[in-house]
């Protein structure tokens, strides 16, 4: 009996899967995990994601997709979906402590002169776009599951999931955020640094004048507004020189209103919008950067698990999405996964370190009320980030 090439191809594919070749397990279905999964699946990898959280995305606030985010999403064919569901814009207006315009940063348009430089978008909406594309590309996503143990054996990674099942994979990707447990399982150590700042976000209706990002310098804190769609925006406030603390939910709106009271001009309008917001959150600003190798054998960490900047440059998601793309490209063009992972980290380390360090410097300047020194730094860092990933 003889076999045709189709049967032989199918048998080879089955044996590859059996041996774990070109199979990847990703920990975390956030921005880094979903993009890496889609990019790998499109290159022919069998990809499964273990996500600790439930199916529904829970965060009710938004974020800004800067040029590099849009460029990376465009490479996956997803930028237009984000622009359609979000709010395209190209400028950051800095307003001084007296409520007067102080500076305007015009961001580079990285996906063409006829498309906006960046987009504000609600987090659940962005998550839905990335999630749907991963599923369309054949990625299998398990919820309520994490990775319990990892063991490298030659070119294979033996992975035990918290539901008691096991996988053999050629690649394990830890994309489980700043408090990554995958990073810990791999023995990669980093510190989480708190910078004396707590950040607030409140979902509000978009005022008609808000067609770009506005940032207001205050006597003690910094406030601002980011449009998310035609109808929605979020107000942000960065509280400076404070201890980490958790406030009862009932205190969030009145406290945020009080903190906004000292700002003149348009912030008065934002203050009244905050009063009726049903979605107010307050979080510590924490940063992390993984020094040394980002991989152990065929396992690697990406996104916030490897490098988490302060939100001042609004670019953590950009790094996370870029990581997903660059990772798939590098493992695709090297003979072994380990070599691909080392090349990946080699391409990413300097860029990610620069962003984390610059975001921390900007946070420090904000705390020292040296806003005018921060503006050119924001501008030049956005220009640096416009360089290819
Ligand atoms: C206040 C604030 C504002 C920000 N604003 C912006 C902005 O405007 N623009 C921007 O580009 N960036 C912004 N960022 C940064 C951005 O949110 C992050 O850089 C980005 O979310 C990182 O993506 P990630 O996929 O690496 O991690 P995450 O988004 O944290 O995703 C990690 C995923 O892993 C899951 N997970 C966690 N632990 C486990 C586990 N043990 N097992 C399995 N799954 C697990 C989580 O549930 C989650 O789904 C902001 C950050 C903060 C804190």
Automatic annotation (TrEMBL):
Gene3D superfamilies: D-Amino Acid Oxidase, subunit A, domain 2, FAD/NAD(P)-binding domain. Keywords: Monooxygenase, Oxidoreductase. Pfam families: FAD_binding_3 (PF01494). Residues 24-336 form the FAD-binding domain. InterPro entries: FAD-bd (IPR002938), FAD-dep_Monooxygenase_BioMet (IPR050493), FAD/NAD-bd_sf (IPR036188). The keyword Oxidoreductase applies. This is FAD-dependent oxidoreductase. It comes from Streptomyces albiaxialis.
């Amino acid at each position: 009996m003889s076999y045709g090439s189709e049967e032989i191809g199918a048998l080879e594919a089955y044996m590859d899967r059996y041996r774990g070749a070109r199979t990847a397990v990703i920990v975390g279905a956030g921005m880094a995990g979903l993009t890496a999964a889609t990019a790998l699946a499109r290159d022919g990898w069998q990809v499964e994601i273990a996500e600790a959280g439930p199916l529904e995305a829970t965060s009710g606030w938004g974020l800004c997709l800067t040029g590099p985010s849009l460029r990376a999403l465009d490479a996956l064919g997803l930028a237009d979906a984000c622009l359609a569901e979000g709010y395209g814009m190209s400028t950051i207006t800095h307003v001084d402590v007296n409520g007067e315009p102080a500076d305007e940063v015009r961001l580079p348009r990285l996906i063409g002169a006829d498309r906006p430089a960046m987009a504000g978008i609600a987090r659940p909406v962005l998550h839905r776009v990335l999630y749907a594309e991963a599923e369309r590309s054949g990625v299998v996503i398990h919820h309520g599951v994490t990775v319990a143990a990892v063991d490298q054996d030659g070119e294979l990674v033996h992975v035990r999931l918290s539901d008691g099942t096991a996988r053999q994979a050629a690649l394990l990707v830890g994309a489980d955020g700043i408090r990554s447990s995958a990073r810990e399982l791999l023995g990669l150590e980093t510190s989480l640094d708190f910078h004396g700042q707590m950040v607030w976000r409140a979902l509000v209706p978009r005022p008609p004048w808000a067609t770009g990002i506005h940032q207001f310098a205050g006597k003690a804190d910094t406030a601002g507004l980011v449009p998310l769609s035609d109808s929605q925006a979020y107000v942000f406030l960065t509280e400076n020189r404070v201890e980490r603390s958790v406030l009862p939910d009932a205190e969030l709106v009145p406290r945020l209103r009080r903190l906004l009271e000292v700002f003149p001009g348009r912030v008065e309008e934002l203050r009244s919008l905050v009063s009726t917001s049903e979605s107010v959150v307050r979080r510590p600003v924490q940063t992390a950067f993984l020094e040394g190798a980002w991989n152990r054998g065929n396992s690697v960490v990406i996104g916030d698990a490897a490098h988490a900047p302060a939100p001042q440059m609004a670019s953590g998601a950009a790094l996370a999405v870029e990581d997903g793309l660059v990772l798939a490209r590098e493992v695709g063009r090297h003979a072994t996964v380990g070599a691909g992972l080392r090349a990946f980290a080699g391409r990413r380390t300097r860029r990610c370190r620069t962003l984390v360090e610059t975001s921390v410097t900007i946070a420090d300047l904000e705390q020292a009320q040296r806003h005018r020194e921060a503006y050119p730094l924001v501008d030049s860092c956005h220009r640096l980030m416009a360089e290819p990933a």
